[in-house]
Amino acid sequence: MELSVRTAESGECQDLAYNVFARSCPSRGTLEHVTGRWGALTLGALHEGSLRFNELRRRVDGVSEKMLSQTLHALERDGLVHRDAQPTNPPRVDYELTPLGREVAERLMTLIQFVEGRMDDVLEARGRYDETRGAL
């Protein structure tokens, strides 16, 4: 599944072992886990530091317990999140980013901050679109 890509910086070709555009490529699943609504918000929340399940659920407003659990399992399986279960009574489970997860979250936070910073433009574009479509 190699793909040659010309990098913008150098103009040189670089061989990649995976191609997210190929249907059978395993990178596609990880991309879905990272960029899906709950995955992105979970990684963003954990970028701030280690959190327990209920703290994370409160931070990611609107996520159900089931969806958060599924999201954490997928991110843990992909090596992005570490689950630390401590044998206390009651049990204590903390979630934190792995080094790979931190790297992904930092890139994701750049995108999140960009989107938040440009929301006035987005809302304006939506308004124009809605006016145009409503007039048809």
TrEMBL record:
The keyword Metal-binding does not apply. Residues 25-123 form the HTH hxlR-type domain. One of its GO terms (molecular function) is DNA binding. PROSITE patterns: HTH_HXLR. InterPro entries: HTH_HxlR, WH-like_DNA-bd_sf, WH_DNA-bd_sf. It comes from the Bacteria. Pfam families: HxlR. The keyword Cell membrane does not apply. Keywords: DNA-binding, Transcription, Transcription regulation. This is HxlR family transcriptional regulator.
